[in-house]
Design goal:
Radius of gyration: 21 Å
Structural class: alpha+beta
Low-confidence stretches: none
Number of helices: 17
Helix content: 40-55%
Shape: globular
Mean pLDDT: 94
Strand order of the largest sheet: 1-2-8-5-3
Number of domains: 1
CATH architecture: Orthogonal Bundle
CATH class: Mainly Alpha
Oligomer: single chain
CATH superfamily: Cytochrome P450
Order of helices and strands: HHEEHEHHHHEHHHHHHHHEEEEHHEE
Number of strands: 10
Distance between the termini: 54 Å
């Protein structure tokens, strides 16, 4: 085990947030696991370990299916944060079997590959319309003009949220996702609580309406979903799942789009190759998600003592798996700091792995390919208008905006 006293790893340092990859290289060199006192976490930076731990049932996204907070040596969240935790803790992402298994099975009945495949024409048409709007203006902010509205509209359409109700979705999501950063402030928590209450109230009304008048949307499908034991989603599980699908259904896609184009602008030879050969789009999507990973860190609780490279990590500890570091591991990726849109062997873990593998990964790939294809076709002269600013967040990695010009 390496000590972290003199590490360059510092998730609150703007320079680190701007480019964490050199610090990740240092972490990988130091060893397979490093204790980081500021967050009381064990950092795991290597691909093989992260991949294995994502599948290790001695770890969990929660511990409350087996232990109380006291038994686990942890402090319960403050009561004033309860609306956020009620919302968050009933979603698939933060549950373990058997509840995770039951909910994912029921949701999967309404979130099938066929459903996703049927969305392709809608996604493609919407991407083209958004890019047309960008081109007509001669440019703009790629984030707000294309990257955000595409996946938000798609998941809202899937869920059956009327177009007139969609304006608060992105702000609600941003406020809730602030709680996934390391050591969020009380201001961040207050915003998350307010957004959790407002989003939950809205969905409760929408679910009631769909119970009376079902449609062919995902919320209606989840209301109707049941299995041979007649298991159904509770109302709270329905609300939490809808919020999770919206948040997870666009956050990674939005950030992958702008992170990806910023990477392309910084690697003009790769952008030129992509413009010359649009058949590279599928491999480009995978490589851009690897190269600048939208979700940098994923946490797990140690439910049963484990050992990593001779270091015993006790029950009650928290492991921080560094997706960005794993996706740049030279043991797995040849020349990992080089953007290579033709990279064939690309086992990145940007969609996680194991039982929590992203259920929306096929949809995200369709959306990313659609927006990239539309931009390459309709805005072949797309260029950077100004260097972007990084968001101050570390865990969810993105840009404040990406100003571009066309023509």
């Amino acid at each position: 085990m390496a000590a972290a006293d003199d590490l360059a790893f510092d998730p609150w340092d703007p320079a680190f947030v701007s480019d964490p990859y050199p610090a990740y290289a240092e972490l990988r060199e130091r060893g397979r696991v490093t204790y980081y006192e500021p967050t009381d976490q064990w950092l795991v930076p290597r691909h093989a370990d992260v991949s294995a731990l994502l599948r290790d049932r001695r770890l969990g996204r929660t511990y409350q299916h087996r232990f109380t907070h006291e038994d686990f040596g942890r402090t319960a969240p403050p009561p004033e944060h309860e609306p956020f935790h009620t919302l968050n803790d009933h979603g698939m992402l933060d549950l373990e079997p058997p509840d995770h298994t039951r909910i994912r099975r029921l949701v999967s009945k309404a979130f099938t590959p066929r459903t996703v495949e049927q969305l392709k024409p809608y996604v493609s048409q919407l991407a083209r319309e958004l890019v047309d709007g960008l081109v007509a203006k001669g440019g703009g902010d790629l984030l707000t003009d294309v990257a955000e509205p595409l996946p938000v509209a798609v998941i809202a359409e899937m869920l059956g949220i009327p177009e007139s109700d969609r304006a608060p979705l992105r702000p609600w999501s941003a406020d809730i996702c602030g709680m996934y950063e390391l050591s969020p402030s009380e201001e961040t928590a207050a915003k998350a609580v307010r957004a959790s209450n407002e989003f939950s109230s809205y969905l409760r009304e929408l679910i009631a309406a769909r119970r009376k008048n079902p449609g062919d949307d995902l919320i209606s499908g989840m209301i109707a979903a049941h299995d041979e034991d007649d298991d159904r989603l509770t109302e709270q599980e329905l609300i939490s799942t809808a919020v999770l699908l919206l948040n997870a259904g666009h956050e990674a896609t939005v950030n992958s789009t702008v992170n990806g184009w910023w990477a392309l602008f910084r690697n003009p030879e790769q952008l030129a190759a992509l413009r010359a050969d649009h058949s590279l789009i599928p491999s480009a999507v995978e490589e851009l998600m690897r190269y600048d990973t939208p979700l940098q860190l994923f946490e797990r609780w140690v439910l049963d003592e484990i050992e990593i490279d001779g270091t015993t990590i006790p029950r009650g500890a928290e492991i921080a798996m560094l997706f960005g570091a794993a996706n740049h591991d030279p043991a797995v990726f040849t020349d990992p700091e080089r953007l290579d849109l033709t990279r064939a062997d690309n086992p990145h873990i940007s969609f996680s792995a194991g039982i929590h593998y992203c259920i929306g990964a096929p949809l995200a790939r369709i959306e990313l390919a659609a927006s990239m294809g539309a931009l390459l076709e309709k805005a072949p002269t797309l260029r950077l208008a100004a260097d972007p600013e990084r968001k101050p967040n570390f865990v969810i990695r993105g840009l404040e905006g990406l100003s571009v010009e066309v023509g």
